[in-house]
Amino acid sequence: MSNQNTNRMEIKKVNRNRIYKLIYQKGEMSKQSIAYALNISLPTVTQNLRILLEQDLILESGMFESTGGRKAKAVSYNPGARYSVGVDITKNHVVVVVVDLGARVIQKLRVRLVFENKREYFQKVGALIEQTIRDSQVDERKILGVGISIPGLLSQDARKVVYATILGFTGGRIESFEEFIPYPCIFSNDASAAGFAEVWNTNMADNMVYLSLSDSVGGAIFLNQNFYPGDNQRSAEFGHMTIVPNGRECYCGMKGCVDAYCNSRILSESAPNGLDGFFELLRQGSPTHQKIWEEYLEYLLITINNLRMLFDCRVVLGGYVGNYMEEHIHTLREMASKRNTFEPDGTYLQVCRYKTEASAVGAALQHVQPFIDSI
Ligand SMILES: [Zn+2]
């Protein structure tokens, strides 16, 4: 094939990808509005839409009322064209989700399963994945892969764990899981994955900092909608910023880390029913829990304000505690504004949209992103 032909084909593919991504972003569009938005001729749009339709990647989704009285045909992306599986591995639980191309959770399973760096454990996880896929009734041939979120730091190719003290899985490899999973697998850091799920297909802002408040504290940084990994894949380790000189001991061996003041166990271990119980007692006005909460918030707001000062962008609260923050967001924003040197309000502070399954969804999206890019 001549170079010219190759170029023409590449341009065609670029156009098709731009068209698909625009439909994906907007959900539903007319042919005319696609042509207008991308500055591509109507015949080119038509031709590409036909190919996308043939590939089952888009759907003809009805009619738009257009101004001239004639109705314009609308297209939308087909969320069921492919699926992806996400797994969130924590010390005591496994969450498995099946998501469609739109990052919607089709099937979810959460079971208590204590992590062990043993073959039997990986085999059990493989069986849970198989079960979840079966329950979802999704065509197995449409599954892009399995993303596995773990509380640990990863190698650059995301196939090896370089630090996972909480699990005791330092040095762990993706092959351990792959042996029992008949799909391509990739690791994700739990907080990065959850942050990825939060920014997915949102136009809210170009920049976002995600603060994950779970058994350990972590986070993720997105600049211009791109994940910022850092030089050593250790960005956003917010849990190990020092907030109290010589303060409480952290599991990492240092003193005064954010983690020692803001991890979810500080709240959950003070109540008989974990976090649910804690927030229930707080609602009932228990003075003991009120005191724990106030102290927790004091350190949390120092952390949040530091993030705002550093990044000057929205801060999203996630993780186990983030799931309960909706009802406290006004208090938090008020506290945030009081601490802030420059701003009269704390609206930059937001609550996560995904709840307990955020990390699993984000891990699943690690397969969706390259698929969309490849269309
Ligand atoms: Zn630490």
Task: Give an overview in words.
The strands form four sheets. Strands 6-5-4-7-10 form a five-stranded mixed sheet, with helices on both faces. The chain has a five-stranded mixed sheet with strand order 13-12-11-14-15, sandwiched between helices. It is α/β, with parallel strands linked by helices and 375 residues long. The radius of gyration is 23 Å and the shape is globular. The chain folds into three domains: 3-77, Orthogonal Bundle (Arc Repressor Mutant, subunit A); 83-195 and 358-374, Nucleotidyltransferase, domain 5 (2-Layer Sandwich), CATH 3.30.420; 203-351, Nucleotidyltransferase, domain 5 (2-Layer Sandwich), CATH 3.30.420.40. The protein has helices at 3-26, 31-38, 42-54, 119-136, 174-178, 190-199, 259-262, 265-268, 274-283, 287-311, 319-322, 329-339, 358-374, and strands at residues 28-30, 58-65, 71-77, 83-89, 93-100, 105-112, 143-150, 153-154, 161-163, 185-189, 208-213, 217-223, 226-227, 314-318, 349-351. Helix 1 crosses helix 3. Helices cover 41% and strands 22% of the residues. The two termini are 22 Å apart.
